[in-house]
Amino acid sequence: MTRATILAEARTIFARQGYAETSLREIAEAVGIKTPSLYAHFSSKEALYETVYAEVAIEHTAFFDDLARSSGELEPLARLRHLLGGIEAYYRDRPDLAEFSLRAAVTEYGPAGRQLREIFLDSESKLAAAVRQTYDDGVASGSFIDGDADGFIALVFVIMDGLFLQLTHYAPEVYGERFEQAWRHLATILSR
User: Fold this and answer.
1) Which of 2, 26, 37, 14 has the alpha carbon at shortest distance from 112?
2) Residue 108 pLDDT class (50, 70, 90 cuts)
3) Mean pLDDT of the chain, nearest integer
4) What sign has the CA pseudo-torsion 90, 95, 101, 105?
5) pLDDT of residue 163
């Protein structure tokens, strides 16, 4: 039994059932150990959940960091589309993380809730920098209308959150159609 095995099983069960409906006993049974053995690795259910949540945030951040790096040479409008398209690319290959993230977005986690929000906001900061750079490059090249960079970042994050919800609730073809329709309108609004 390893810490990694505990975290993998906990992630699966938290994704399937959510924080409130998951017991340490269920996680221990999935790992093949007794519940008290979990305490050798985690002080509480909250500590275990926070660790799983932090790992998910790290994976998410790494994916979007790579996506931002790989799109850095694209013209700003194409770069923005590439970043927005990352929502589908990331979650289509990771349905367990989609379910985990969906539950995490709408559930309170007990005493660790505030700490989890801080983890999320910290992980979001690198993506915000990539979006800001896209905006700055777009304004500098004349591709985007000059305005409010912070407002642009907020708009992109709101759109990403909406895309995530669309992705988790609709069939791939419906999602794809909606993405394309929304993109056409957004590109028109942003362009000069």
Assistant:
1) 14
2) low
3) 90
4) positive
5) 95
How many other CB atoms are there within 10 angstroms of residue 16's CB atom?
14
Q: What pLDDT score does 120 carry?
A: 77
Written as six digits, the tokens of 29 are: 């049974």
Q: How far apart, in Å, are the Cα atoms of 151 and each of 10, 84, 91, 146?
A: 37, 16, 26, 11
pLDDT tens per residue, range 153-191: 999 999 999 999 999 999 999 999 999 999 999 999 887
Question: CA–CA separation, 41 vs 47, rounded Å?
Answer: 9
18 sits in the region (left: phi over 0; alpha: psi -120 to 50; else beta) called: left
| Tokens linked to 12 | 């699966």
Distances (CA, A) of 90 to 9, 56, 63, 167, 190: 21, 12, 7, 11, 25
C-alpha to C-alpha distance for 85 and 160, rounded to whole angstroms: 9
Q: Is the pTM of this model over 0.70?
A: yes
- The residue type of 49 is Y
Distance in angstroms (rounded) separating the CA atoms of residues 43 and 165? 33
Per-residue pLDDT tens digits for 123-136: 788 899 999 999 99
